[in-house]
Amino acid sequence: MIFERAARREFAQAAAGISVALLAILTSTQLIRLLKDAAGGRIAPEAVASLLGFAALNFMPVLLSLTLFVAILLSLSRAYRDSEMVIWFTSGQPLTAWVRPVLRFALPIVGAIALLSWFLSPWANYSRDEYKQKLSARSELAQVSPGAFQEASGGRRVLFVEAVAEDASTVGNIFVASVQEGRLGVVMSDTGHQRVAENGDRFVVLESGRRYEVEPGTPEFRIMEFERYHVRIEDGEAKPVADSPKTMPITSLLLDSSERARGELVWRFGVPVSALVLALMAIPLGFVNPRAGRSANLLIAIPIYAIYNNLLSVSQTWVSQGRLSFWIGLWAVHALMLLPLLVLFFQRMSVGNPFSRRRR
Question: Does the pTM exceed 0.70?
Answer without folding.
Answer: yes
